[in-house]
Specification:
heterodimer; A: alpha/beta; D-Maltodextrin-Binding Protein, domain 2; 2 domains; three-stranded antiparallel β-sheet; 11 strands; 19% strand; B: mainly alpha; MetI-like fold; 10 helices; 80% helix
Chain lengths: 262, 233
């Protein structure tokens, strides 16, 4: 009798859980969330359409794994190689870029190796290696880490000097570590503007337009119309104008890729 | 389901291949957690004993606090230790941030209340059992306390094991104060977190199995130790 009741209760729980319509599940990289753009876009989407979005925040590597395990509707990342792999193996629709900025090199305010006088990131990385500067690497296969590895590859030198710190942490943690250890690190303006409050770090190379950081959106094969609706909104003039008007400390860390509403 | 099997296989292969890096991480985890437990024991056992055997003002408050601190969130301890050791913090001159020492400091804070609470409860029980007897035979105070400890060693070691389990399993504190730096401050839990972040879920789970095995072996060794001594006396 008692067991019967427990079974019944468990059954009812399962039924009510499955009946509880899950909102659209979006997975986005930590940098978008940390800069405040994630919450801002969700609020804007709710305002514009009345639809709610549930966001899961992880680095690109973990985001791709989550997609492979089939728990996600929409994915927003900035690591094109991994996204292309997922697309090629049929897990997601073709990634569409929706906004961009560029990678920046930040470091101690007094800039011990004078890297801020260098023109671009590639030259900057050559100098970092030649002067054996202290550098914090994310080491987590995130979009930022992958870009860092590409930059080292361009210099033709492996970052194997003593002060090259192979951490395994998120962007905020890496910025904190660079601040504490007076080291350089690669980041993007959104994360930096947000995390830099209270840190003794400054932008060393901030305007290398060659090293673009593109954010892409795709739907997974599990996504229904709501995922498509969100992506359409984000790429529409309305969504693009929302991105354009997002600010951190009165600066615009991201620029929309299409022409926004004026 | 498949990934679960993959993980088991990965863990097995990792151990067989004798991957130097994995063993180094296991060793670092063991070292940091064991040192933390030893230091925690040096503070926690005397403190717990004091709480159990001595009447003094504020004892109840301290005892309640000890119970409460058993559940301190590691990430909060991590943040606190980070701020203390940060360059512009009160102990910034020591230059300890992102070192094993910093991780040990955080874990000592984590395990000491657990060890103290276990010791206190054990000593209270033992004192209730043998206190009268010891007083009746005029056993000197220190010798009496040591006798009680010897009688209650299994409970005290239980506290050490609980502390070790908590220290070796937590990730929040060591991630913040250690920074998960390869070959320096990367331990089992931060390595698992990192592999998860990289999307290597099977490898992450495999490392998890290694961590569990490590904890089980340490527990078996420590409890085996007590049993043997118990048989002799």
């Amino acid at each position: 009798m008692r067991r019967g009741r427990i079974t019944l209760a468990a059954l009812l729980c399962c039924i009510s859980l499955s009946a509880w319509a899950a909102p659209l599940t979006l997975i986005m990289t930590t940098s978008i969330e940390a800069s405040g753009l994630g919450p801002y876009l969700r609020a804007a989407y709710y305002e514009d359409t009345g639809a709610e979005v549930r966001a899961i925040i992880t680095g690109s590597g973990q985001a791709y794994a989550a997609v492979r395990h089939g728990t996600i509707d929409v994915i927003m990342t900035h690591e094109p190689d991994g996204a292309k792999q997922l697309y090629d193996s049929g897990f997601i629709t073709r990634p569409r870029p929706f906004m961009a900025n560029h990678f920046i090199l930040v470091g101690p305010v007094d800039d011990p190796i004078g890297v801020s006088k260098v023109a671009g990131l590639e030259e900057g990385f050559v100098l970092l290696r030649e002067r054996q500067a202290r550098f914090v690497s994310r080491g987590d296969l995130s979009g930022t880490h992958k870009r860092e590895e590409r930059l080292w590859a361009l210099t033709g030198m492996a970052p194997d000097h003593k002060d090259y710190i192979k951490a395994g942490i998120g962007m905020a943690g890496a910025l904190r570590m660079a601040d504490q250890l007076e080291a350089y690190t690669l980041t993007e303006p959104g994360s930096f503007l947000t995390a830099a409050r209270g840190l003794d770090l400054a932008i060393m190379i901030g305007d290398d337009q060659n090293v673009e950081n593109r954010y892409e959106i795709s739907m997974t094969k599990d996504a229904d119309d709501r995922g498509q609706a969100f992506a359409d909104w984000l790429l529409s003039p309305l969504g693009q104008s929302r991105i354009a008007s997002f600010t951190v400390d009165n600066q615009h860390p991201y620029r929309p890729i299409r022409t926004p509403l004026q | 389901m498949n990934s679960f099997l993959d993980a088991s296989l990965d863990a097995f292969l990792l151990l067989l291949s004798g991957d130097g890096q994995v063993w180094a991480i296991v060793g670092r985890s063991l070292l940091i957690s064991l040192i933390s437990v030893v230091i925690g024991a040096m503070i926690g056992i005397p403190f717990g004993t004091l709480l159990a055997l001595k009447q003094f003002r504020g004892r109840d408050v301290l005892s309640t606090l000890t119970n409460g601190f058993m559940g301190l969130p590691p990430v909060v301890i991590g943040l606190g230790v980070f701020l203390l050791l940060a360059r512009n913090g009160p102990f910034g001159v020591l230059d300890l941030l992102y070192t094993k020492q910093a991780m040990i400091i955080a874990q000592v804070i984590l395990v000491t209340p657990i060890i103290a609470a276990y010791s206190r409860d054990v000593m209270m029980t033992q004192s209730a059992r043998f206190g009268m007897l010891l007083r009746a035979y005029h056993v000197p105070r220190l010798a009496g306390v040591l006798t009680l400890m010897k009688e209650g060693r299994r409970g005290i070691i239980g506290g050490l094991l609980a502390g070790f389990g908590r220290a070796s399993a937590e990730v929040g504190a060591v991630m913040i104060v250690g920074g998960n730096i390869e070959a320096h401050t990367r331990v089992m839990t931060t390595a698992i977190t990192l592999e998860t972040a990289k999307g290597n879920l099977a490898l992450a789970l495999g490392l998890g199995f290694v961590l569990i095995a490590m904890t089980v072996i340490v527990s078996a060794l420590l409890s085996g130790l007590t049993r043997e001594r118990g048989a002799k006396s």
